[in-house]
Amino acid sequence: SSDLFPDSLSVGPYAGWLNTPILLTSTDNFSTPTSDYIRWKIPTLVSGRVVGGTAVITDSIAQQFDRSFQP
User: Fold this and answer.
1) Residue 1 in contact with residue 60, Cβ under 8 Å?
2) Each residue of 5-60: pLDDT tens digit?
3) How far is it, in rounded angstroms, from Cα 53 to Cα 37?
4) Which of 40, 13, 10, 38 lies closest to 23 in space, CA to CA?
5) How far apart (Å, rounded) are the C-alpha atoms in residues 1 and 7?
6) For the segment 55-64, what is each residue's pLDDT rounded down to a tens digit?
7) Tell me, what's the pLDDT at 24?
8) End-to-end C-alpha distance for the chain, whole angstroms
9) CA-CA distances (angstroms) from residue 43 to 8, 49, 53, 69, 70?
10) Alpha-carbon distance 36 to 32, whole Å?
11) DSSP class of 20
12) 41 and 16 in contact (C-beta within 8 Å)?
């Protein structure tokens, strides 16, 4: 999350290897910039991953993220 970012730092090398962005959001609020980016890229996005436990990203936000990839 943008509040607790060590998980995003730890996934950085993996994201770099895949040449994919790391999107940050708040723990309990799907941030507008992240949501906008996903909507903008949805025609070419195949999948995504939530990195971090429920202390970092709530289940509600993870589910909202997963729904972004459903037709």
Assistant:
1) no
2) 677 788 889 889 988 888 888 888 888 898 899 889 888 887 788 888 888 889 99
3) 22
4) 38
5) 8
6) 888 999 888 8
7) 86
8) 25
9) 24, 17, 28, 10, 12
10) 6
11) -
12) no
Write down the residue that tokens 């992240």 correspond to.
Answer: 34
Residue 57 CB-density burial (10 A; 0-12 exposed, 13-18 middle, 19+ buried)? buried
Q: How many CB atoms lie within 10 A of CB 56?
A: 19
* Tokens at 4, concatenated: 């607790």
CA pair distance 34, 26, nearest whole angstrom = 10
H-type alpha helices, 1-71: 6-18, 32-41, 59-67
Which two three-digit tokens encode residue 22? 């790391």
CA separation for the pair 62, 16 (Å, rounded):
22
Using the structure block, give the residue that is written with the tokens 């970092």. Answer: 56
